[in-house]
Structures
1.
Amino acid sequence: MKNILIEHNIHWLDKKYDLKYRDYDINIKNTNKITVITGLRRVWKSSIVKQIIDNIEVNKFNKFYVNFFEWRIEKYKNIDWLEEIFQTYLREFYEKYWDKEEYIYLFFDEIQEVDFWYKWILWKYETDYYKIKFIITWSNADLLSSDIWTYLVGRHNSYNIKPLNLKEFCIWNEFSLDFNNINLEKNKFLNLCEQYFINWWLPEVVLWEKIFNNLIEDILYRDIIKRYRIKQEKDIKNILYYLLENFSTNYSYNSLVKSIWSSNENTIKEYISYFKKSFLLDEIEKIDYSFEKRLKSNKKTYLVDHALWFYYSLWEKLWLILENLVYNIIKKTWKVYYSWDKYEVDFVVIDSKKNLKWIYQVCYDIKNKNTFDREVNSLLYIAKKYKIKNNLFIITYSEEKELEIDDYKISILPFWKLELDML
């Protein structure tokens, strides 16, 4: 066990983890709460944890990291063994080299692999002799539900890690993302934007494309079929592949039953909830002030990364990539709906006070007059309906201009400018 722990904690040997930078400000020094890091597999949650280990300035032996997916650790899957691992760390490392004035920083990666881990952490958090700060990761949002929630409520700060954003993608490609540099090297920047738009955002896929072939199967079996004991594997796979290939298309649960020729409405709702909890996709509702009408409305799905669609679809539709990208940009801050009345509008966004605040229409190219008129008319229709004269946007691939029509102000922006504004 001692040698395994040394291999997990190379910082004890004065080595750096030397990983690609991820742009997340996770504050663990100024809080005593448990830090929870969640997200889709392959978004580099472990790398962010190791980035924190590299950067936090405390005695190196006050930082203890364990990855519970590691095959030699897999057998330690109950809280008795968790305590044994902790006691080994204290006995062999911490108590020999400790800084008693500092906290112990415990980094437990993929903690869901340990049965009843939350009881052990709460026990240490509430009662232990040592001053401990916990940083834990997992790959399924369901772990913040049911009985686990009762243990962590009020005691944790949660961070959901996303695929690469444009800023990170540029940094990885050694391009400084400030407006002066963008203006000086506009062609290079636009070339990077094109790569970012077309290619994947998942960090490991950006670096090693070959791992993507197994990603969805890994998520499906590890995080869904195994976790929820799914017996109808063919049905759940068909539903997932259908949603991946038909994202942004509105549907009812009954229409999914008819399209896939399997399961029933309740089962499909259940399966989609598993996809959402595993961070594969989001489901949005049609905007309405009535909760009941929103609940009964047709839904749309959007993918956490359009690479998931490339892998299972035979088509390359650039406007769908753009729509999915825009959704992922604007969802970071506010609640997103779609509108479908006389006209279809891609996204309407409410603020924290539940006021409808922003309206987005997405169109790859609006040079054609008929296309331009269609997009503008759709935007104006919903703006007039909800009495909004500002914060109206048409997001395109590359076009940019400002319009004012009957006191309604419309901003036409390229997707990269929208994302930079949101960072």
Note: Residues 304 and 328 are 7 Å apart (CA to CA).
2.
Amino acid sequence: MPVSPQDPWVQVAEVVRLIRSGEAQTRPELADATRLGRNVITLRIQSAQDLGLVEPSGDVRSRGGRAAEVWQLRGAAGYLAIGLHGPDHFRVAVADLNLNLIAEKTVPWPIISADPVETSERMAAEIEGLLPADANGRLWGFGIGLLGPVDFTTGGNADPVTVSTLGTRWPRDFDVRGRFTKRLQAPVLVESVANLMALGAAAAPGAPDDLIAIRMQMGVGSGIVTAGRLHRGADWIAGETNHILVRADPERVCICGKTGCLDAYAGAWAVMDDARRTIAQGRNTTLAKLDSDELTVRAIVAAAESGDIPAAEIVLRAADALGRVLATLVTWFNPRRVVIGGNALASSPLFHNAMRRTLNSQALAASVDALEVRTGEPHLMEEVHGAFHMVREALLSPSYLAEWGPVGSPMQAAGLRERESQI
């Protein structure tokens, strides 16, 4: 909700932002950056200190005159928690306000087939088990990442791309935020895991303002950051690269019901289908020696990189498909960086080299000359960073702080928990 720039809590939020970003950390620096008088700055720092948000760092800084005290964000003010969905598991983690990871756990779980209520209750219980002993009343916020697109106003799943994908996403009318808010008694924000990966990539030191994050798991989704902000699209489905046409091929049937989509070439399910088809054709491949539960993307990539030609063909076909789609995206969007993370394909040199060759040959030359393509962090850590970043940015934003600042804690602000919109 809009708040006046003259609202004292809006000014507190700006002071805290400047301090934690390092842009201004002393009273003189903050006065210059905000154009507020030094007496007002002193009052705003005091308000932030009363909330436990800032503390003296112990350092002083001088610009030629009297040395001024340096302020820093106080990580121990409160705790943040996150829960992230995967196709066959979920991950929970807890961090302090400085985003230092305190605890993390991955729980095997049939996300796609399990009841949403049961999944939510189990995830909430795992989060409560991770919280430190002194966390009572200090869980400031919770972020959750869902596999499908998310309507960011309500925090619920956006409509599926097609009817055939209904089984892979939670019902649109399932109140994700409401259930977790009631259980955890804290503000809750919901986003897609692909967008959280993009937020995490954008929060990395030195990250450019314009980037694409490609998340390779069962499908090939993406998140788009432009001018430093996440681009969600008019209907919240920006980044559904899964269903961009690679080429018209009637044998490449996607789960969306159409043919030739990127997912039908490079999604984990398609790659494993290709391997099973290769084995059924009787081709000479080491993959034939594997049991069905061992025929994973990791095993296929390992075989390809060890010189297994049929396995290499599968990997190269997936790489060419992603390269073609990225050529379109990069030429149209002109990002400075593309981050590719997720399963074993994402970290495969064979896959990356082939994908980059196709990208370079298909895209406008000027759009790839300065383009950086990098492998994501192991275990999709960008989406962990992105989820914590989303929650902290919301809690310390002017509109949120204006609600919880007067009562002393986000957990005491009933209005935050009762919001119809999470924006």
Note: Residues 327 and 363 are 4 Å apart (CA to CA).
3.
Amino acid sequence: MSKIILGISKLALKVASLIGKGSGSPGQLALKLSPNFLHKFNIPKKVIMVTGTNGKTSVTKYIVDFYRACGYEVTTNDNGANVYIGITTTLIKYSDFSMNVPGDVLVLEVDEGNLGKISDAIHPDKIVITNLFQDQVDRFGGAKELAWKMAKTFPRGSVLFVNGDDPMASYLASLVENEKTYYSVDCPDAGCFVDVKCPKCGKKLEYSERVYDHLGIFNCSCGYAHKTPDFVAENVHGRDFTLAGREYKAPEDAIYMVYNSTAALSVGLSDNLSEEKMFEVLSTIKVGNGRLQRFKFNGHDSFLNLVKNPAGANLSIDLVAKSHVPYNLLIGINRHEADGVDDSWVESILFEQLKDSPLNSVYVLGESADLLEKVISERLPGHEVIKGDANSLISQMEADGKAGYFLANYTMLAGVKSALKGKNYL
């Protein structure tokens, strides 16, 4: 019966691709016909899952490219479909009619809210936890609440690769009995930071070293503290850093790229992958798909970046603030279900960090444009805030002739990318 459902689903996948339907529809059909369909596949022996708030897509890509560069055949969900239905669709796409998923390694980006259900069907050997930040509070609550929820259904027997600088990811690790490998980045004051409460006792966490947001070397009077890391990125200078005595280059000069690289390298080093091959991959990998995607705008260096929570948005603000030339900023935020319908996180974006930079105007769009206008006007008095749609706002930025930077959340990203592509910038 499963093979019949697979055949029907593969046909549905072909039809969906022809009519431009969403990536989850064949999986949705298969699961409707057989609720345990994801359990039926014959999976490669090695399974690696990447989860967390920020960095999942990038870390997944790095790990995939590491293994491929070292001669492994890898299957992955590189379309970003990281929930239960989407991953079912991925396996429908790549499996043969005997339900064998090809490859030596299966590497999956997994939504943090879906990890328990997906890992029940496909047991991972390794799980990377990139970080746990405030994100989609209507869905997850705070980072501590997310850690609780994830711990309840966390798969046993998997080896965890945990961002040890994150007190919330480390808290999740403390709630489960799995074997843990901790990684860390030694780069003090790399971005703006925020105070958080200890997830164990509720007191304000203390830090002997801060990196950005709530990441750093933390401790609490209750005894909760930063674990001694197994892998540490040191001597961080822009893209360059050292790990386990070897020099590497992150894909871009951004602290979160160093974290993403360190997470992926920790997995690769644990499997004794070639350090030389991993160096080549990281130093030449092309960042795109709205993840710090660089291009020229009005003759100046520019980028488009996905921002979906305060931590990611504030890192982008830090990058924008480094501009040495007059610039305009465009930011688009929606509040669809995929984004999280609670957009109050916009009020936690530190727009005031731009006050001493050569910022001209801020262009806002999306369902949260009014909130953006309010927050930005309060934090950056004297700077004009202009509302509109992507095409008209980008045209106005073109006419102004200044440099430009572009930030957007999930459901705004495609529209901003389309407008930039339509003007031949991407």
Note: Residues 2-19 form the longest helix (18 residues).
